[in-house]
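Subject: sequence -> structure tokens, single chain

Hey, anyone have a minute? Need the predicted structure for the following. Not urgent.
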Amino acid sequence: MKKLFAVFTFLAFIFACLVKIKRDTHYFKLEKVMFRSSKIQEDAKFTILQISDLHNHVFGNDHERLISAVQNTNADLIVLTGDLIDKTTMTFEHILPLVDQLTAINEHVYFVPGNHEWENGRTAEFFNALREHSVTLLNNRHTRITKGSATINLAGIDDPGTEHDNLGEAFRDIGNTHYTILLSHSPGIIKQNEPIPADLILSGHTHGGQIRLPLIGALIAPGQGYFPTYDKGTFHISDGLHLYIDSGAGTTRLPIRFLNKSQISLITIAGVTGVRQRAQPTRTNK
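Reply:
Had a minute. Here:
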């Protein structure tokens, strides 16, 4: 009887793990995080929807679940922080219709490349297709976005992992008056010797480890090896500079997630009252 109970318990555990893997891999959550800065007027705010590391994954028929979530956020702009496709993706039949739906919802859609775009073999074709579908590529470039009386700088760095980054070009003549956000697919950009004249870096790439264990967290992340420090969530890098890593929506190599649900992120940048102070996150996920 004890053996039968042990077998039943083991099978129940395996079944629960499989259910959890399916839900974490094929259903996503909306993660919300807020940063405040005196560079933003106290009554103003910007909302930014970040989608990262999709790896050609499709949520629902023709991304219907993802598109519904995007519409509900009513974000001021959408940023795509790399690896929309996988290096093995041979056709863009899934990703370009999604891009069309995103640009139909919001005309402000920005993209920085990830390592998988550069390793795909159809890199130039994909970048041209994004431009033709009304996406703005911020590969070592920046732009300025104004909403009412508030203005932010949005800079983008090309993928550091494949050595296409150029911080000097990305921040050329940008100034430091306005709140500045840097899009970088890899959080490894913080290891550069050059100073990063930004208030916030939005990254992906790590997948949050993709598979996580209780008490341990992420087992491995690209560019960091085992038990990575910068896995997901918000990190204070230096005075006035924070890093936020979205754990991504898709998978690569192993097509599973565990204890690390697929996600997209809604980042709010809001003003503060009183004297000038550095930006502070109101929520940290690790």
